Hints:
Blueprint: E1 12-16, H1 46-58, E2 63-67, H2 77-84, E3 90-95, H3 104-110, E4 114-118, H4 124-131, H5 136-148, E5 152-159, H6 168-174, E6 180-186, H7 203-211, E7 217-218, E8 227-231, E9 238-242, E10 255-258, E11 263-265, E12 274-275, H8 276-281, H9 287-295, H10 322-325
Parallel strand pairs: 1-2, 1-10, 2-3, 3-4, 4-5, 5-6, 6-9
Antiparallel strand pairs: 7-8, 8-9, 10-11, 11-12
Helix pairs in contact: 1-2, 2-3
Amino acid sequence: MLKDSFDRIHNYLRISLTDKCNLNCTYCCPVNMPKATFSRKNQMSAEEIDTIVSVFVKEGVKKIRLTGGEPLIRKDAKEIIERLSKYPVELTITTNGVYVHEFIQTFNKAGIRSVNVSLDTLKKEKNYFISQRDEFKRVTENIDLLLKNNFHVKVNVVVMKNVNDDEILDFIEWTKDRLVHVRFIEFMPFTGNQWSNKKVISHKEILELISTKYDFIKLLNDKNDTSKKYLVPNHQGTFAIISTMSEPFCSSCNRMRLTTDGKMKNCLFSKDEVDILGALRNGEDILPLIKKCVDDKQESLGGQFTPNYEITDASKINNRSMINIGG
């Protein structure tokens, strides 16, 4: 069992398969900076991921999420998914949805039943503005494909003031006749993403806006949920809010992260990392490093800023860009 100094049990591992992406969303990719910084030799191989995961699973990990960059652009993504499917865990993935149609059979074979798809707008032109790529039709078609194949589909929407906050009600309406679970994510600060507290739409503000048109019911959350879930009566789908900035959920955090170059982060915002891959390649026992990394976890937000996002100075946060961490 992996437990930190605040008695939080950590049983959820997020693994970034690559720091490359076929899209170029500014909240994830550093502005005017190269997206990829790791050479292939510094990237965890499929076999190394398998070996590292085996240690985490023995220590009680029950859920694994594959992330990126865009995990499905990695050439051996199918091999990695198949390798990890042998473990007694809930295996899930977060993707931008562009290549989902090529992986439906792989998902089914591996027992993946829940897929998170990133989509920040329901407007084709705005999608191009945000992602810098013309993939809106393919992504929305693949969301429908996942639904047709009975996957649990969560749609991640990073909400930014004066960018896509005018579509919050459109996303709620989208859940009326479609079994999607929309998750509004507060805009978070990372290196190079031009974060500003003035661009944040808070949990409270989102609910206030939704209430101008819809009645909704608060749903029960699981112990380690990051999202606060809601249901509009007579809608097939649901919506939720991930309130990292305005109402953090650190007290129940059970997450650990592995970057594509094999560094372990005990928090999305942690400045410190542990070189798990380097130790593995040197023939060292990686379990003590994993345990120490978990034990060193700060009480909240990586110890780098406070829950009062209105006074947060992003320039003082020491971290990687989002694409280099993995969501």
